[in-house]
Amino acid sequence: MSTPVLELADVHTYYGKIHALKGVSLTVGKGEIVTLIGSNGAGKSTTLRTISGLLRPRQGDVRLNGQSITSTPPHKIVERGIGHVPEGRGVFPALTVLENLEMGAFLLRNDAEFKRRIELVFQVFPRLLERIEQKGGTLSGGEQQMLAIGRGLMQQPDILLLDEPSMGLAPLLVEEIFNIIRRLNEEHGTTILLVEQNAQAALQVADRAYVLETGRITISGTAQEMLHDPKVVAAYLGL
Asked: Which one of 14, 17, 86, 196 is most buried, counting C-beta atoms within 10 A?
């Protein structure tokens, strides 16, 4: 079996004395969409923040392409190939769409490569091209989410971490965002770790899934298995 793009091995993360992640282990293979589902407070965002180096685990290991990044500073983790689109989008409201995208490529020094990457973003998100000179703070919620994902893609990361991309969006926009996630994976080969409260939508686009409950992985399997698992259906799918 090839080395996973991302691997967490027995990761324990704390907020002060609060034991938030209690031995989380998971893998994401190249070209996969893996989703992490669970209720509020289960530790989903904490998992992504730990991967990104924003939180340091007290125990366990985080590996990117087989190399430990557990003690690597966040800015170096970005350089190593992890793109993180945070919950709440985090666009720069006073900057234009173009300037926001430029912030995603701050490590890049090659003009030709920048042009190639931004053309890819506008191919995926043509609406951003239409709004290129508009301030990020004046965009709709759906457009801001597109901008946040586009900014993450400007890094051309080995893996893209998406934290609650559908949060606060109208149902039609939720469908559009998940279609975009599927296209990024199928057409561009983007490897994605998706944290999402909309478990039904997440499982429809994912290859595999993990259920996180109070800091522990309690169920794992293919997305199709999860869609028919009685415990998952009862707890998260509302069916």
From this structure: 196
CA–CA dist 230, 236 (Å, integer): 10
Q: Which residue has the tokens 């998952």?
A: 232
Q: How many domains does the chain have?
A: 2
Do the domain assignments include residue 181? no
Contacts of 80 (CB under 8 A, 6+ apart): 64, 67, 69, 72, 158
* Half-sphere exposure in the Cβ direction for 98 (13 Å, CA): 9
In a shared domain, residues 76 and 194: yes
pTM of the model: 0.91
Q: Which of 122, 45, 129, 150 is nearest to 88 (CA)?
A: 45
* Owner of token pair 């730990």: 50
| Tokens describing residue 28 | 């994401």
Residues 118-177 have pLDDT tens digits of 998 999 899 999 999 999 999 988 899 899 999 998 888 999 999 999 888 888 888 888
Nearest to 186 by CA among 168, 165, 207: 207
